[in-house]
Write a structure and sequence with these properties.
The chain is mainly α. It contains 5 helices and no strands. Helix 4 (80-109) packs antiparallel against helix 5.
């Protein structure tokens, strides 16, 4: 069986490009959030796939904490009917999140190579981050 002499090089090159892309995933306006700033620094320091994954998984946990904080803050500001609606919405979102994570894990996880593992982690971060920002936006709307 013939083996291409540059195969290893191309794998390393693709991994380097993936890490570079992960550093640029946030939109410019999102880069101002402290979690995004922390993630950018952590990804800049990442020397391996394991380091990249750890940074992304930590960012997901931080966004989850932010989402829970925003949810609790919002619940304190809503009337009874609105609280019931938000509770129902959050339960449905959690079910969606779990199903979406299973789907993205199955689709991206079917790809060969460890370089795809950070892609899975990034999808998890994006999902939780979007909900955290959505809840914070609802809270801001109450001030207008």
């Amino acid at each position: 069986m013939f083996r291409h002499p540059f195969k290893g090089f191309f794998i390393v090159l693709r991994l380097a490009l993936l890490v570079a892309c992960l550093g640029a995933v946030s939109r410019a306006d999102d880069d101002k959030h402290p979690i995004d700033l922390w993630l950018k620094k952590a990804l800049d320091r990442a020397a391996s796939t394991a380091d990249t994954r750890h940074a992304l998984q930590t960012a997901e946990a931080k966004w989850d904490q932010e989402m829970n904080r925003a949810y609790k803050t919002l619940m304190r500001r809503l009337d009874r009917t609105q609280r019931a609606m938000l509770l129902r919405s959050q339960k449905a979102w959690l079910a969606f999140r779990d199903a979406e994570i299973q789907t993205s894990d199955a689709i991206v996880g079917s790809k060969q190579g460890t370089m795809w593992l950070p892609v899975i982690d990034e999808k998890h971060v994006d999902l939780v981050k979007a909900r955290a920002l959505q809840l914070a936006d609802y809270d801001r709307l109450l001030d207008e």
